[in-house]
Design a protein that fits this description.
It contains 12 helices and 13 strands. The chain is α/β, with parallel strands linked by helices. It has one domain: Alpha-Beta Barrel (TIM Barrel), CATH 3.20.20. Strand 10, helix 8 and strand 11 form a beta-alpha-beta unit. This is Methionine synthase.
């Protein structure tokens, strides 16, 4: 069945307010969002580092830098994450049916951190090998922690907006005049494959939020759920890519902008997309996720009522897709 959840990244009301709205609008499938307006602790790199055992970072002159041992910044971001979970455990209880936890995927994470000498972590093959193992272990630890606290297996969203630029050699090197060489879709996907599978319950979601969709990487990785922006479907190649994924029985997670739209109209747009690539509207009665599109750092701040209305529209759209898609 189609299920709705809140955006993984939000620029909006305070965390306590957002938690109340999410609980009221999306039932038992609740997102623990990254709040972009929170400064350091609302930074996606800092948030991700808090979830990775053995990764320590600090502020550098250009971006986050790796450190060999935890400094004050690592303690700040780790404590912030634990306080959020403590609050949500008290606010939401310990008997949920689903919790969505976003974090940067390893490729994007490695483009946004540097060694102390200024070399981007993406260029360090030894570090990438170690980072893969850290992700494998840390995702299992996050799963077990959430399951113990909230009585549910979490949906872990690996957000990879930089994959397209990595694949096509568009990531700057030590200077803006140097570009890090491109990588093949097969290499990028092979690295992600183990992370996209989960034997402990819950779901691993590979997300292309705010980026072109790398359909070949999504397919080669074997991801069972692929998340993408509805607005990113722009070309015939995107339609072909989506059709191939659905043919491989991959579950879609579609990010939509509900601003100014009625749930029924939004449902019709999504059904039109699925029928265009050769799938009946009843696809959504069996599977699929629908969510609010992510905020970005330059987005306007969503006021409380606007956030609640947008999330309500997405949830109502998911209900329509689940129960009445064949009649639209």
């Amino acid at each position: 069945m189609a299920q709705a959840y809140a955006a993984p990244s939000v620029k909006g009301p305070p965390f306590r307010t957002i938690a109340d709205i999410i609980a009221g609008e999306t039932g038992d499938l609740r997102t623990v969002p990254i709040l972009l307006q929170e400064g350091i602790t609302g930074d996606s790199v800092a948030h991700t580092a808090a979830l990775l055992d053995g990764i320590y970072i600090d502020r550098g002159p250009r971006c986050w830098q790796l450190t060999s041992r935890p400094r004050s910044m690592s303690h700040v971001i780790a404590d912030s994450w634990e306080r959020k979970l403590d609050f949500l455990e008290e606010q939401w209880g310990t008997d949920l049916n689903g919790l969505v936890i976003p974090l940067l995927g390893p490729w994007t994470f490695s483009t946004r951190i540097e060694h102390s000498a200024g070399r981007r972590a993406l260029e360090d093959q030894g570090f990438l090998a170690a980072l893969h193992d850290i992700y494998v272990a840390s995702l299992e630890q996050v799963h077990d922690n959430i399951a113990q606290r909230f009585g549910t297996s979490p949906h872990l969203v690996l957000v990879e907006p930089d994959l397209y630029r990595i694949q096509h050699g568009l990531i700057p090197g030590p200077t803006d005049f140097d570009l890090i060489p491109e990588r093949s879709a097969e290499d990028l996907a092979d690295y992600l494959a183990e992370l996209c599978h989960n034997e402990r319950g819950g779901t691993r979601i590979l997300s292309f939020s705010h980026s072109p969709i790398c359909w070949d990487i999504a397919r080669f990785s074997g991801a069972r759920v692929v998340d993408f922006d509805f607005a990113a479907i722009r070309h015939h190649s995107d339609l072909d890519g989506l059709g191939e994924l659905l043919n491989c029985h991959v579950t879609p997670s579609v990010a939509v902008d509900p601003t100014g739209k009625q749930p029924k109209d939004l449902a019709k747009e999504i059904i039109r997309l699925s029928t265009t690539v050769g799938f009946a509207p009843t696809l959504w009665a069996k599977q699929g996720f629908l969510r609010m599109v992510d905020s970005s750092t330059d987005s306007a701040v969503l006021e409380e009522l606007a956030f609640a209305q947008q999330l309500r529209t997405v949830a109502q759209t998911a209900d329509i897709l689940h129960s009445d898609a064949g009649n639209l």
